[in-house]
Amino acid sequence: MTHTRPFRLPKGGRLIDRAWQLPFRFDGRHLRGVTGDTLASALLANGQMMMGRSFKYHRPRGPLASGAEEPNALFGLGQGGRFEPNQRATTTPLVPGMVLRSQNCWPSLDADLMSVNSWLAPLLPAGFYYKTFIHPRAAWKHLFEPLIRRSAGLGRAPAERDPDRYEQAYAHADLVVVGGGIAGLQAARAAADRGGRVIVLEQNPHWGGRTPVDHGPEGEAAIAALLDDLRGRDNVTLRRNTMATGLYDHGYLLARESLADHDPNQGIPRQRLWRIRAGHVIAATGALERPLAFACNDVPGVMLASAVRDFIVDYGVAPGQRLLVVTNNDDAYRTALVALDAGLDLAAVIDARPHATGPLPDAVRERGVDVVTGSGIARVRGSRHVEGVAICRQSGDGHVTGGYDCDVVAMSGGWSPVVHLFSHCGGKLTWDEGQAMFRPDPDRPPLGADGQAMASATGAANGDLRCAGDLERDEGPTLPVWVMPQNAGAKARAKMWLDFQNDVKVSDVELAAREGYASVEHTKRYTTLGMATDQGKVSNINGLAILSGALNQPIPQTGTTTFRPPYAPLTLATIAADARGEAFQPLRKTPMHGWHDRHGASWEPVGHWRRPYCYPRAGEDRHAAVNREILAVRGSVGTLDASTLGKIVVKGPDAGRFLDMIYTGMMSTLPVGKCRYGIMCNENGFLIDDGVVVRLSQDTWLCHTTTGGAERIHGHMEDWLQCEWWDWKVFTANLTEQFAQVAVAGPKAHTLLERLGGDIDLSPEALPFMGFAEGQLAGIPARVFRISFSGELSFEVAVPAGRGLELWERLHEAGRDLGVTPYGTEAMHVMRAEKGFIMIGDETDGTAIPQDLGLGWAISRKKPDYIGKRAHARSHMTDGARWRLVGLESLDGRVLPDGAYAVDQGVNANGQKKTQGRVTSSYHSPTLDRPIAMGLVRHGPERMGQELEFPLPSGEVMKARIVDPVFYDKEGARANG
Amino acid sequence: MAETLAQVARVDGLGMIQIRADLDCAGEAIAEAAGLALPDVARITGDGSRSLGWMSPDELLLVLPAADLPEALAALEQALAGEHALLADVSDMRAVFDVTGRHAADVIAKLSPTDLAALPPDGLRRSRAAQVAVGFWRLADGFRVIGFRSTADYLALILKNAALPGSTLAPR
Amino acid sequence: MLTLTCPYCGVKAEETELQPGGEAHLKRVGPGGSDQAFEDYLFARQNPKGVHFERWRHAYGCGKWFLAARDTATLQVFGTYRAQTPHPPDEITAAIKAARPDWTPAPNAADWTQAE
């Protein structure tokens, strides 16, 4: 692109420092900006007006705006893991060495082959996607879907891991003011005077909002004075670079602070997500300028009047050399004055209003500029850049009355308050006919925990566009202009853009209305108006005004679409923040975790715990390791880290009575020093946990739970104690992590334990099966429970967690000649299945009752009540046809697939084969050297010896015979050593 | 390179006794046996060596040097003889960290939804730090944070991450 | 995300520190209860749009269950009170009536409102 004059103005630019030149790269070109530039101002300063391609038609686009509402100038930024798509050029500060890539174009921004879509525009009307669904299926599959998939999405997601850090922080305040413009700063000062903690959030790196641009040095001085005042107060926190993205229930406000965006060299978190609890939120979020809908209003060079003014005043950048202003209000005349002050040519001001009087239009006229009233733009000339405009009467049909050459059109269709934050959590809007805008309805605010308004709006966000007080000049009224000219023909309407990002035009919304879309929410989805990053910022009001016109109804009757958070996109990295890598979730480690790790444990997650699944040796796979471990336990002795088992102490005069309610069995009669297996149900009668209960003393019981069950069961107990039987004298304590617990199992278990020395009599007479003893082992205070989940002679030893590793290592030293073998959870699982013991989560699935699992013996018939007893009397629970526990013996020597279904005769209503059972546990038993399995089968225990068929996904059918679930040591002799 | 926001140090050698009892009846007896004043709701009392914290309406936590634990446990047992109460040595199930330094409060504010301005000087707050349960109270130059033993590595990691140099919460 | 004040420890806790427990003031039906009564106890819930009484546990705090009176539509909280309370205390019902003059308790909750 050639240009005769530099785009960076010789003077001005209140936010930049010309002394510092910053190199950057744009699509491979080496360019320079200055400190304080945004990407957009730097590109404009280099004469680069074209900054993107529209989503659907791939039309060339320049920046429309200068802030967060920018729909066009989105870039891929950075490289490798730091690449980020859709970065907004107007809000991204330029950092030296930045690498920008244009999006949504191929092979390049200048020569985008997909721009052929623009010629196909008549074939791609509103609801194009939906219409493709209707046509022949083959067309969708072979034509439309591949085409849509290839062209869908703005930008590309990065493939590599993000190397930057992100964090979150909590804050609490009586008042949060969102927006650091003049209205926000004034509101903060008033609130600070009243006392209480005040936080002010400003999305930009600089304070003041529009005031310094719109009111010049006087405006800057007013802002500086307010900031001075606020900075001197202890109860005020001023935070820049912080975008409030959403307001949620009970004053919960999310805000993203940019700390080191695009500058990884600082070594600090890149962004921080603030989770703020606000007593009240004041939205001082200002207003956004609306585009005007005239033909070809999307040609690069057509910009919002306020944006043109911002680029000149803030960055000393002229978007063009000869401007034309088109407006329906007085504010846009400020742009004309700013341009004149900057020495730019001004072709004319085209004003849709019949008259333009007052200080601002007069000031422009005084400078000798044509002010053409009652007129509009018939169309813009130029395709890749504005070359001029044709002028017409606003009240007519577009008959051209004249024209101007220009390279920038600064347009203003009036202003819309930024009502997003007020609306996110239920605040309602009211239509302000006089100013042609929706503004917050103070009578229908979002409500907080106290039933009072939790948010309000002030300044421009509240519809008060002249909130700069004494700095304001008189302004005439705005004339609502939704289409320019008023009676434009169909051809022109098909070139009037409403949503620039998604390529939604006046004709699309009118088509939707003709096709029956009367609801604004439906129209939004059908046309994609205001979707993606726009979220109603630029397109909303114009779109619904067009829809209202097409439906012949007033605008408030049409209403607005819902404003949903986030106001501006949040990165997933900020939402995840520190919860990644090692800190992704808390891993629970037992006291022996390090030992397992050093000895090659292959880990199994159990809840948040990590437990050794097995300990493979060199050359062993997991299966071989599990088999070896089982044979070692059955043949000599092994140790299992059982520290994860829940250990809940229940104490008090009513503890026995309480446990009789919690467990299905009788625990109050358990003698001191004895253990008893217990199962727990919920009120639905379904099994929720099991474990061994030990009576420690007259009024104290120790309840073991499953690994995953400790917190849940402790909570369950506390729930019943606090909410149902609060007059019972019972205390509970979850001591799970206070103890390390080791299962020492195998025929040599007794021999091994004896070697540790201590004062506990471990003989079968003193410590019989299901007995408990306390004392010291190897000099460590210990509790020893003679319980067995493997079927072998087994002792579970509990010691203070801090000494667990010591116990474990002593066992391995003392048992070296016995071949003592650490075994993992899988060996434990297989051994319990060999014994026909159920496992919570395998044999139970939340719908199994104890009676299904042959555990009727663990239910006390004598007790009048227990949790689940009433449910066990329901007809479906006593139905003999329930699926019940059996053993399954594979007929061909292969292991049955876990979860496989046994099919029955006939088919169900869906034409699927009926089922009569399923496999719940299935393993190769190294002890028996054959497959074993357990399952739930209809009438199972009454069908011993019958064969069942299990169809596999391959189509093959496996057969198994129903057998007793106890495969090994049916007499239970081995547990006695 | 900026300095870390706070020092994060694991504290070993502490004993802890969980005391569950009807505090209206037995509170004073417990306090006397512990040698400390009975804490008010959500407060903690101490004498520089021992602390007695209010954990819930019927639960106190005595924190003391590990060596003093057996004696203290015996004294409490004696004081609570005949009362319906539960005493448990919970020293081994906890992980304790001291977070000290000028910006220690920033570290806490990154991890817990607690309003620290509403936490009195002698307050004991039970809350969460990121994804795990913690309790914490003020030290002269920071906070003492207690969590669970099994997640000590996680707690240490998130505390250290939150104390990353240069990441103070003060507006910049 | 809600905030509720725990009536035991006075902490203003946010939802992430709490565990929800469903509708409050249910009456347990045990052995001997009719099928209908048992079904209602297990499954029949008010699910109102408006004033609701519910159970919450200060799970990441003192561990105690408490009850809250809340408007499910506006999320206004009328108060929290201890779980060992068979029916809402007077100050809670007064707060509800002050904010919702037309409010009447659900029909099957009549037994506890008669206590006023």
TrEMBL record, chain A:
Give the matching InterPro entries: 2Fe-2S-bd_N (IPR042204), FAD/NAD-bd_sf (IPR036188), FAD/NAD-binding_dom (IPR023753), GcvT/YgfZ/DmdA (IPR028896), GcvT/YgfZ_C (IPR029043), GcvT_C (IPR013977), GCVT_N (IPR006222), Sarcosine_oxidase_asu (IPR006277)
- Looking at the record's lineage, which domain of life comes first? Bacteria
This protein's UniProt keywords: Oxidoreductase
A GO biological process of this protein is: tetrahydrofolate metabolic process
- For the GCVT N-terminal domain, which residue ranges apply? 592-863
**Annotated TM spans:** none
GO molecular function terms noted in the UniProt entry? sarcosine oxidase activity
Q: Does the keyword Oxidoreductase apply?
A: yes
Q: Where is the Aminomethyltransferase C-terminal domain?
A: 884-969
**What are the FAD/NAD(P)-binding domain coordinates in residue numbering?**
174-429
- Among the Pfam families in the record, one is Fer2_4
Taking every annotated instance into account, which residue ranges of this chain make up the domain SoxA A3? 495-578
What family name appears in the similarity comment? Belongs to the GcvT family.
What is the protein name stated in its UniProt record?
Answer: Sarcosine oxidase subunit alpha family protein
UniProtKB/TrEMBL annotation, chain B:
Q: Name one Pfam family in it.
A: SoxG
Q: Which domain of life is it from?
A: Bacteria
Record InterPro entries: SoxG, TrmE/GcvT-like
Q: Give the transmembrane ranges.
A: none
What Gene3D superfamilies does its record include? Heterotetrameric sarcosine oxidase, Probable tRNA modification gtpase trme, domain 1
Q: What is this protein called?
A: Sarcosine oxidase subunit gamma
User: What organism does the record attribute this protein to?
Assistant: Paracoccus siganidrum
